[in-house]
Amino acid sequence: MNGLNSEIKENSGFSDQKEEVRSYLEKLLTVSRDPDYDRYVRQMIRDLESGKASPFQVRREAERTFRLYQQRMGARGAPAGRDTVEFKVGAGIFSVIGAVFVLVAFMIFGLNFLDGIWQGVCLYVSALLVTGISLLFTKRLGRRFSLIIMGIGTGSLFLSTVINYLVLKTINEAAACVITLVISLFAVFVSRRRDSSFLRLICILGCYISFWPIESFESELSFLFMTGIFLFVNLVSVLLPNQKNRIVVDAVHMVLHPLFSVYIAVSAVGEGISPVYPACFVLTSAAVVNVIFLRHRRDVKAWFAALFSASVAITVITLAALTGFRHGNANEMQMLYYRLITEVVAVMAAMVFFILWEKEKYRWIQYYYIVAVVVLLNGFSYFRLEKAIGIITVFLLTRILSGKKRLGVLDCILTVLAVLEGIAASSYYCETSRYIVLFFAAFLLSVFFIRQNAVFHEIAVTVFFIFCILFEFDGNWVYLGCVGLLLVLFLLFNHLPNLKGFNQLPYNIVNLVFAGLFSLTVWFCFDSVISSVTMLTGAAAIVMMFRKRYGMTVPRKYLTAAGYLTYMILTAHYESPVIVSIFLMIISIGCVGAGFRLRDKVYRISGLSMAVCVCVKMIVYDFRGLDSLLRIILFFTVGVIALGISFLYIHLERKEEKEEKMAAIAQEIPAQDFVQIKDTEIYKEGISEE
């Protein structure tokens, strides 16, 4: 800056000050490394050339803005290459390497040339010396360099604690925990004061490393003391956060904290500590993770939410492992007590954080956590009643809340789980099959709260009810029960108010396929009564299902019903062929009658064809082997039916003749006078004929 000013003063004697200022601005362009400042200097050149500003004004503005530029880019006179890779390697990496080498030298000296307690003291003195140098000479070393040295010194303090406890045996577990507490509090205070994320990460990692070698707990009191110190350190770190790179520090903390908590809990159970204490410790650790996540509730990143979900999953799996398996001499009642205590505490804690959340998007993670805890903890239970109540409770609660979009997937998962558990309770646990009543009532109640994925839930409920009938009942009545159940479910799902907005056609087709399969299996049923009732139920189902309102209209549905009845009659294993012939003739006259009513020739021809076949069957097959009384009954019944068919045809012929006469008269009468047709002689004649 001074050199540039001196050049301008030396050239001030020139008459053309405009050229001098222009030359000054061009030199500024060669010095500048900021594109925004380059554009501003070029704008000043244009103002100078156009005469919008005098050379004196431009020079003064250029000097002012150049000082601002220097402040923006760093200290005055800073070398241009300070942010290059060379500077980062030379000033950053080699500073760390040098400090580590010096620290290793002190440690080697202490371990090889000192004995007993003096080795441990030497390690601490070395670490404190490095930390003290970084604190005392911060200004001379520079902020970045001093923070690196301080981080290495702080890490050395944690490492010295581990070596003194694990290798030198100069301190016990309690002393190691207390020293770790002091070092951690110091590191938290300094990292917050210096606003250094590097020091905060060193503090978190060092705290975990110091607790890692602890391999045994003498008693529950010892476990509570050590884990209390650990949780206190983590809470202090959470409640006294840094501002710089805060989310990165929290992400590392969120990942490491549950992992290390799992390690401590598993180690405690292996040492014979009652599972209640490790479970409560894991729940407390989960609360710390929730506090970390809750702190970012106003602007949550997707990747941060994914890390939180993973931490929650680790907690749930750990709780299931701690309370699901029998430990030591604990009996089933004691394990039940452990599970119930854990569930209650977990649910209460999750509900607190659920209420504290403001955004709808992430608060439901807590609900997923509650469901996972209940399902997994009950999944390892020996008591079938406990498992049934737990799964049914979360299933119904989720179904009631299924109007929330974010619970749709969970609702489907719990539905499948409840179906499988209900089927298992019915099939594999004969002594507890009474619990199937609970699942039956739960599924029946759940259909009134379906809000999403209606077809999926309807099919699941249908499958559950069918398996219940198959496993709970024996005999040929099972086929009839399944067909009747499918018909009831069909009508229920198509008429429930909460399901009117869904497309029911896929479920209707599935229901029809199931009903058809169970109806066609009547071949394996040798009870003619059950076959007859199943036949009538299936025919009624066809007539009701094949309607426009259900989306399954088919041409000539009554003809389809007739074909179904024919199959059922032929495969119903009736004792006498006479009964089969009579039923077939009834179907034939029904087809003819339907053809008359619907004015469909196909119905009538089908009915006549069947009647002819029945008559041939009577002569060729039925007539043989019957006594005189049965022959009389057979021929009389079939004859009456045949006369009925004939009467229908005669009636149809006369009705069509009258309609033809009325149509002819209608063509001769103007349209406006057509209403007077009732006064004609033809109309009166038609009345008299009828």
Any key phrases for this structure?
single chain; 690 residues; mainly alpha; disordered N terminus
Task: Give a brief rundown of this model.
It is built from 28 helices and no strands.
Map the helices and strands:
Layout lengths: L1 H9 L6 H15 L3 H16 L4 H19 L11 H29 L3 H20 L1 H4 L1 H24 L6 H22 L2 H15 L8 H20 L6 H25 L5 H19 L7 H23 L7 H25 L3 H20 L4 H17 L7 H20 L8 H11 L7 H19 L4 H19 L9 H16 L7 H18 L11 H14 L6 H22 L2 H22 L5 H41 L12 H9 L1
Helix pairs in contact: 2-3, 2-4, 3-4, 5-6, 5-8, 6-8, 8-9, 8-10, 9-10, 9-11, 10-11, 10-12, 11-12, 11-13, 12-13, 12-14, 13-14, 13-15, 14-16, 15-16, 16-17, 17-18, 17-19, 18-20, 19-20, 20-21, 20-22, 21-22, 21-23, 22-23, 23-24, 24-25, 25-26, 25-27, 26-27
| Number of H- or I-type helical stretches | 28
User: Kindly, what is the distance between the CA atoms of the first and last residues, rounded to a whole number of angstroms?
Assistant: 123 Å
DSSP strand tally:
0
**Mean pLDDT value:** 75
Write the element-wise H/E pattern from the N-terminal end onward. Answer: HHHHHHHHHHHHHHHHHHHHHHHHHHHH
Describe, in plain words, how this protein is organized in 3D.
This protein has 28 helices and no strands. With 690 residues, it is mostly helical. The protein is elongated, with a radius of gyration of 45 Å.
